[in-house]
Amino acid sequence: MIIAIEGIDGAGKNTLVNAIRESSGVPVAVLAFPRYDSSVPAQLVAEALHGRMGDLTDSVYAMATLFALDRYGAREQLMRYVDSAEIILLDRYVASNAAYSAARLQDDAVMDWVHDLEFGRLGLPVPDLQVLLATDPGTASQRALSREAQDTSRERDRYERDTGLQKRTYDAYLRLAERDWAGRWLVTTDPADILQEIR
């Protein structure tokens, strides 16, 4: 199974992924996107979000394409979990591109463009379950600030600093979940709910 954990910056996705892995009772692989440590498109994204790529971040479609190409680089790794007894948890996946792009453009039409790009043209596998970590945007923002204060290597990027963008992205995620965009969704903050759904 491919299970995508989605949410805005500071929502607690990494914490939730680790909690699920530790309490699942079966081997669970984990992969986080963007793959800043191993993917050139993801590294270009990081440079752009920290103001080192000129006006690249001004283009919603250019940034969305870089995020998509990062995932495409992991396509073969992901395909082994399709129709498999194995489970992989993804800390963000395609829906994050749809939600952030829609929030930036303030137009949900881009959600279909992202779907066609990533699941269609790039042939990425559709997840078996998408989980929206329903952390209040105000709480998530405070967590991101605290994380930055405690760890100087975790300087917030352009998206993380934009509280309006984070709120619009959360709302876009809710609309994706309501539509069952690209498959089944669960909206929760409880790891037990997710484990039950997986089982």
Structural descriptors:
5-stranded parallel beta sheet; 10 helices; single chain; Rossmann fold; globular; 199 residues; alpha/beta
Structure overview:
This protein is α/β, with parallel strands linked by helices. It has one domain (2-198): Rossmann fold (3-Layer(aba) Sandwich), CATH 3.40.50. Helices cover 54% and strands 12% of the residues. The chain is built from ten helices and five strands; from the N terminus they run E-H-E-H-H-H-E-H-H-E-H-H-H-E-H. It has a five-stranded parallel beta sheet with strand order 2-3-1-4-5, with helices on both faces. Helix 3 runs antiparallel to helix 5 (94-105).
H-E order: EHEHHHEHHEHHHEH
The CATH class, by name, is Alpha Beta
Cα shape: globular
Low-confidence stretches: none
* DSSP strand tally: 5
- The assigned structural class equals alpha/beta
Oligomer: single chain
CATH arch. level architecture: 3-Layer(aba) Sandwich
Helix content: 40-55%
Strand order in the sheet with the most strands: 2-3-1-4-5
CATH topology: Rossmann fold
CATH superfamily: P-loop containing nucleotide triphosphate hydrolases
Question: In angstroms, what separates the terminal alpha carbons?
Answer: 11 Å
Number of helices: 10
Q: How many independent structural domains?
A: 1
Biggest β-sheet description: 5 strands, parallel
- Radius of gyration, Cα only, in angstroms? 16 Å
- Tell me what portion of residues adopts beta-strand conformation: 5-15%
